[in-house]
Design goal:
It comes from Candidatus Enterococcus dunnyi. This protein is mainly alpha-helical and 31 residues long. Helix content is 58%, strand content 0%. It is flat, with a radius of gyration of 9 Å.
Length: 31
């Protein structure tokens, strides 16, 4: 399993959008 897939699954379990995750890390969504 790739890191991107792990991040996506973890984010979806927490019902977070990509934007919410990016905001939490103080980066843009495209990063």
């Amino acid at each position: 399993m790739k890191i991107g897939q792990l991040i996506k699954e973890s984010r979806e379990r927490k019902n977070m959008t990509q934007q919410q995750l990016a905001d939490q890390f103080h980066v843009t969504r495209q990063t």
